[in-house]
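Honest question from a wet-lab person: if I give you the sequences of every part of a complex, can you actually get the arrangement of the whole thing, not just the pieces? Trying it with mine:
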Amino acid sequence: MSDPARWSSPEMVARLRRRRSSELRFRRLGAGAVGLAIAALVVLLATIAWNGASAFVRTQVALDVDFDPAIVGAVARPAEGPESEIDWAALVREALLREFPEVAGRSERRALLGLVSRGARDAVRARLLGDPSLVGRRERVWVPAAADVDGLVKGQLPRDPAASGRLSAQELGWIAALEERGLVRRVFDWSFLLAGDSREPELAGVGGAVMGSLLTLLVTLAVAFPLGVAAAVYLEEFAPHSRATELIELNINNLAAVPSIVFGILGLAFFLGTLGLPRSAPLVGGLTLALMTLPTIIVAGRAAILAVPPSIREAARGLGASPLQVVVHHVLPLALPGILTGTIIGMARALGETAPLLMIGMVAFVVDVPHSFTDAATALPVQIYLWADSPERAFVEKVSGAILVLLGFLGAMNGTAIWLRQRFERRW
Amino acid sequence: MPARSPDPLFPDAGPAPRPGPGPDAKMSARGVCVSYDGSVAVRDVDLDILRGEVTALIGPSGCGKSTLLRCFNRMNDDIPGCRVSGEIRLDGEPGLDAGLDVVQLRARVGMVFQKPNPFPKSLYDNVAYGPRIHGLARDRGDLDEIVQTSLRRAGLWDEVKDRLGEPGTALSGGQQQRLCIARAIAVDPEVILMDEPCSALDPIATAKIEEMIHELRAHYAIAIVTHNMQQAARVSQRTAFFHLGELIEYGATDEIFTNPRVPRTSDYITGRYG
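Yes, you can. This is the full assembly:
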C-alpha cells in the first residue's frame, strides 16, 4: 500500500488542503475571541478612565478674604467667644460681593453666592486656623467652586445659556468675568481621595469608602485566611476518610456557590442579632465577607495541598518527621502559592460585594472617614452604587472616578498577592 | 506456625525453611501479616535483617516485598485501610506496639524510596533536615560536620561540596538518589531500608549506588528490595524470595542463586516467570 503516487493523488491533495484550511479557521477563531475580549476590556477601561479622570481635578475660585477682626477675632483671642460661633459664611459673602460690587438685590446675591461651594467656608476657616496671624489682613484663598461651575469649566456643561438650563446668562457672565481676572483654576483634587461622602458633589470623596473597604477586608483576611488554611490542611492531611468527611467536603463546595445576600442575612441574624456587634461597622462587614470567602479559600487550599507530590510527604515521614512537621515544613510552603491564588480570588470577590453589606447596614450615607473597626463605614462598591443613584449631574464623574479607585485598590491587592506568590514559589 | 495452604500453581512447594532469630539479627519479623482493606498482601512472614549484611528482597511485582519492607519502619501506618499483625523487633525490642513512638523508630530505621524525592530546598538543608528535627546537632559546626560526613558516605561530597546552596532538585537522577541516601544517613540510623533505589536510574548511576551500598554495609544493617536479579546477587549477602505474599525461600545469596532449594525460586531466578 505504500504507493508514493497515492499520497500525491488529487483526493489526497484535496484532503490535505481541507485539513489545513480547517486548522487555519480554528486558529483564527481563537485569535478572534481573544482579540474581541481585549477590545472589550480596552473600551471599558478607556470609557471609565475618560469619564473618571476629571473626578480627580477640581475647579477652585480665588477669593480675597478680608479677615475682619470683628468677625474672626475669636481665633486670636479665645476670650471673645467660641470659635464655632464665627460666621465664616459672612467672610465668603463679603469677598464675593467685593469682587462684584454691582450685584444688588436678594435673589441676585444668592445666585452669586451659589458660584462657590458650601465647602468654601471650610476652606476659609482651615486657612485661618492654619495661620492665625492672618487676622486683620486681606488674603487670597482658593475655595472649591460649586458643582455646576466645576462642570462648566471642565466642559461638561454647555456655555450657551439656552442649552444649559442649569446656569443663567447672568451666572455665565460672572464666571466668564472670574476667568478673565484669573480667579479660576483647576487643581488635582486630593480631597476626592481623602474626604468622606457628602451631599454636595464637589465635596464628596472616596476616602471614607476606601478606608471602610480597607478595614473590612483586613478583618476578612485575618479571619478567613487562617481558618480556611487550617480547614484545608485538616481535611486534606488529617481527617479520616469517612462519610462525615465527604459530607463536609460536599457542603463546603456548595457553600462557595451560595448567593452572597444569604451570607448577609446570616451576618444580620448572628453578628448583629445574637452577638450584638455594632451595625454598619467594618468588623461585622469583614466577618460576614469572611464567611463568604471561606469556602473559596478552603477549596483552593485543598487543591493546592493535593498538588504537593506525595513523595515529599513520604520522604519527610521516612526521616521521622511528625505529621505536624510534615505539614509545616513541607506541605504548606509548597502549597502556599496556590493557597494565595485562591485567597486573592476570594478577597477580590469580597471587595466587589455589596449585597451582604446591605443586610448589616453598611449600605449607608457615611460622612466621616472611619478610623476603627467599629466606626460606621461604607465600602467602595457601595459608594459607587449610592453615587450612581444620585440625581446630580456632577456625580457621574464621581462614579467613574470611584470605579477607577476601586480598580486601583484591586490592582494593588493583586500585585501584593503576585509578589508574595513569586517569593514563595519553588520548583520540585 | 499455621499450616500453609497448598498453592494450586506450585503444588510441589513445601514449607520454606526459616532460620530462627540469630544473635546477628538487627531486625526480625515473626508471623507478619499485612492486608489492605481485607485483601492479604503479606502472609505470615518470618525474616531477619542481619547486622553488617545486605538482605535483598526479591520476587515478582505484587508479591508483598515492598509492603513487608515498609513494615520495618511502620510506613504502612499512614496508609488508610492497611492492617499489620505479627511481631517486628528491633534489637529484640517490639516495634509494632501501638504505644511505641513511630518518630523515634523511623529515626533508627531510615528509608530510601524508589523515586528520588529530594525536598525542594538546598542540598545542605536536605541533608540537615533529619538532624534538625531530631535535635542531633548542638551547633552549626556540628551540623556542618554531619552534612559533610553523610554526603561523603553517600559518595556525593566531591561532586557537590562547592554548591551546597543549590536546590536538591537541580541534581541528576542518580545524584538525587545519593542525596536521599545521604539524607537518610544523616539521622545516623541503625537500619536502612531501600525500596528499589535504582529502578529509576541508568546503569552508571546504579553502579555508583551499588558501590556505596557495599561501603555502607559496615555501618548499617541494610535491606533492599530489587527487581534486578543481578543487583541482588551483586550487593546482598542474604536473599529472601517472595511470591504471592509469602516468603518462599530465605538464605545466603550464593546459595539462593546457585542452588535454590525450592523449584519456584529457581524458576523465577532463571527468568521462567516474573
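Two things worth pointing out. Chain B has one domain: 25-269. DSSP finds ten helices and ten strands in chain B.
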